[in-house]
């Protein structure tokens, strides 16, 4: 695998874990939701690559062309907007990893697909009122 692909993997593993961690901390410290924060922590621990040396060797964060903060990244108006942004961030990253690993390691691809679908489920459970409220 070439250095550029390792760089994509490194960036997306970091983004995925960071996004989940932000949501986890909101659940834990803002909402005191032990069940949700535990589920998120478990999910975050599934986001791993055993051999990180090639990822670290390919990392070039100082020269990342999108390193400067985008104005849209500064538009958070509430805890909910932070949670929404980080669910999307984690879902997008897991999708990138799923696609890359289809050609590198299909088992890891399936792992990242499962993580993505669990994020979709957690997002709905976290942000949508209960089913009984939707039927009224």
What does it look like?
It is a single chain. The protein is mainly alpha-helical. The protein is 73% helix and 0% strand. It has one domain. It is globular. The termini are far apart.
Architecture blueprint of SSEs:
Layout: H1 3-30, H2 34-45, H3 53-58, H4 79-104, H5 106-127, H6 131-135
Helix pairs in contact: 1-2, 1-4, 4-5
What tags apply to this protein structure?
mainly alpha; 136 residues; single chain; 6 helices; 73% helix
Helix/strand-derived category reads: mainly alpha
Shape: globular
- Which blocks of ≥5 consecutive residues have pLDDT under 50? 132-136
Please summarize the sheet with the most strands. Answer: none
Number of strands: 0
The mean pLDDT is 88
Structural domain count: 1
Distance between the ends: 53 Å
Can you count the helices?
6
Radius of gyration equals 16 Å
Level of helix content?
over 70%
Order of helices and strands: HHHHHH
Strand proportion, as a percent range, falls in: under 5%
Summarize the structure.
With 136 residues, the chain is mainly alpha-helical. The protein has six helices and no strands.
């Amino acid at each position: 695998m070439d250095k550029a692909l390792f760089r994509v993997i490194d960036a997306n593993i970091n983004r995925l874990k960071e996004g989940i961690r932000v949501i986890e901390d909101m659940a834990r410290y803002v909402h005191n939701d032990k069940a949700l924060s535990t589920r998120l922590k478990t999910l975050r621990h599934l986001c791993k690559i055993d051999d990180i040396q090639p990822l670290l060797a390919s990392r070039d964060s100082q020269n990342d062309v999108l390193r400067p903060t985008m104005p849209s990244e500064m538009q958070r108006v509430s805890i909910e907007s932070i949670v929404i942004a980080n669910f999307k961030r984690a879902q997008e990253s897991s999708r990138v990893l799923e696609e890359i690993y289809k050609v590198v390691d299909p088992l890891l691809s399936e792992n990242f697909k499962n993580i993505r679908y669990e994020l979709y489920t957690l997002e709905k459970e976290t942000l949508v009122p209960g089913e009984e409220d939707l039927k009224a």
